[in-house]
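Quick one - first record:
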Amino acid sequence: MKQKICSVFDSLRDLVLEKNRRYGNAALKPMQIFSKAEADEGIKIRIDDKINRIIYSDTIRRNDLADLIGYLALYCVAQDWTDFSDLLD
């Protein structure tokens, strides 16, 4: 089980890093041409949109879940929440 969990997070890490590179860090440094929302607000909008897509879909798509996890991770980065060891009991 440990290896499978690590594989999921390793693969998602690589996906988020590659998408962040391809999109020029747009989630954390938005160009603000049309929307003037700050990075964390823009990420929350993307999360809402992704959850909406999941709710109204007949099936849960792997891509939607990967995007949702990625946006949640980027939100953590935007909040400077990079260490969760304090949450361990």
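second record:
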Amino acid sequence: MSIDYNEKGKIFTEVETKLPVFATIQTTTHRLRGQVHIRRDQRVIDALDRDEPFLAITQATVFATDGSALYEAPFIAVQRANIVWVMPEANPNGEIS
């Protein structure tokens, strides 16, 4: 990643483009459905293996054990240590990400 400065000292960095992948995420206490964002050259497992404490999920729905929706949020951060499994799903175009 390159860093550029202008004459006033403002810092400019490259924008990292990520792709949204629809997925179901099972944690130790809840099931979530939403979008996991991965780098263009990575797989979902690569995003999960990152050395960061939280995984960002957008367009998130959190479900109760009976399958009813508990919460909906445009963004939720899930602690990676609590993730049991992740299953990529078909996106609205019918493609598996």
